[in-house]
């Protein structure tokens, strides 16, 4: 199963919807935190796009693009995605743990 930005966002949206349904008191999250989360996801998406464009440029033998630069951008995008996946997994684990706690 390939994990993409879209599948990660869908999972997080589903969890947020479930949390808001089960949460009868007012939401205590600051909207600034929401924007920071969205900005982080957007930066992750941008790094994936930059890496893809660098690969295309190398394949098309465009000048001013080296294989080393392409490898660097690809590695950065891969590390960013792996970090985001780990954070998502930890969030899911924490949510599952909290939802299974007796009240």
Describe this structure in words.
The structure is a single chain. The chain is an all-alpha fold. The protein has helices at residues 5-22, 31-59, 67-99. The longest helix is centred in the C-terminal third of the chain and has 33 residues, at 67-99. The chain starts with a helix and ends with a helix.
Throw out a few tags for this protein.
mainly alpha, elongated, 78% helix, 3 helices, 103 residues, 0% strand
Question: DSSP strand (E) fraction?
Answer: under 5%
Structural class: mainly alpha
**Average pLDDT, to the nearest integer?**
80
Helix coverage percent: over 70%
Q: Quote the distance from N terminus to C terminus.
A: 35 Å
Largest sheet: none
Shape: elongated
Indicate the topology:
Blueprint: H1 5-22, H2 31-59, H3 67-99
Helix pairs in contact: 2-3
Short description:
78% of the residues lie in helices and 0% in strands. By secondary structure, the protein is mostly helical.
């Amino acid at each position: 199963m390939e994990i993409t930005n879209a599948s990660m966002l869908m999972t997080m949206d589903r969890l947020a919807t479930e949390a808001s349904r089960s949460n009868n008191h007012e939401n205590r999250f600051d909207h600034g935190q929401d924007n920071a989360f969205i900005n982080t996801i957007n930066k992750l998406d941008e790094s994936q796009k930059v890496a893809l464009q660098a690969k295309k440029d190398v394949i098309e033998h465009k000048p001013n693009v080296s294989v080393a630069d392409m490898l660097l951008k690809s590695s950065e995008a891969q590390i960013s995605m792996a970090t985001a996946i780990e954070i998502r997994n930890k969030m899911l684990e924490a949510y599952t743990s909290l939802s299974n706690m007796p009240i």
